[in-house]
């Protein structure tokens, strides 16, 4: 029996983490990996968004035997919204992907293609393994320039509008790994903030957490100093008595 989408997504995320770790040399970049499946953002964006300074991918996972026409309808509406805008079509084929999985005679089969093209069986496809490796390499080695990032943001806004707008929202998590502090998760109240420039996101959220940590340490130090002073005063009173 072929695995459900959430099983495939879980293994994709694990494999992506392993591959990013293998590709990285030195410190690992801040990475935003957020599963939107069965959240308010699922319908308006997709199942999963992966993003950092080198890569942005919006992913939809489906089993081949799922005969629902919902995804084909969403694709058709998006296609009409894109029209003949070649720049946005290029952006779409770069960052928005459809991953279809199936089982054939006990063998796991996968097909990864640009979302806008998934109904066309003649479009060249890759496997989930190769796709994962490609995403990891971009996440580790590429740097997205400001103009391209602005195009990504505009495309994701177009996707959400074509799918009925962002109905509600969801919190997200930033993940950072460093030799000094190890693994850290930081809450982002609105997942849409992850579409911002990642240097700004990191400064805004990790900087805030670091500042809160420093303030907490200062509070502990102040209380410790006050306690020591009180003990000294008490000892002084005892001596005079």
Give an overview in words:
The chain is an alpha+beta fold. The chain has 2 domains: 5-192, no CATH class; 197-241. It has helices at residues 5-23, 70-82, 86-95, 128-141, 146-162, 198-240, and strands at residues 31-35, 48-51, 56-63, 96-104, 107-114, 172-178, 182-188. Strands 5-4-3-2-1-6-7 form a 7-stranded mixed beta sheet, sandwiched between helices. α1 (5-23) crosses α4 (128-141). The longest helix has 43 residues, at 198-240. The protein is globular, with a radius of gyration of 24 Å.
Concise description?
The protein is α+β, with helices and mostly antiparallel strands. It folds into two domains: 5-192, no CATH class; 197-241. It contains six helices and seven strands; from the N terminus they run αβββααββααββα.
Identify the notable features of this structure and list them briefly.
241 residues; alpha+beta; 2 domains; seven-stranded mixed beta sheet; 48% helix; globular
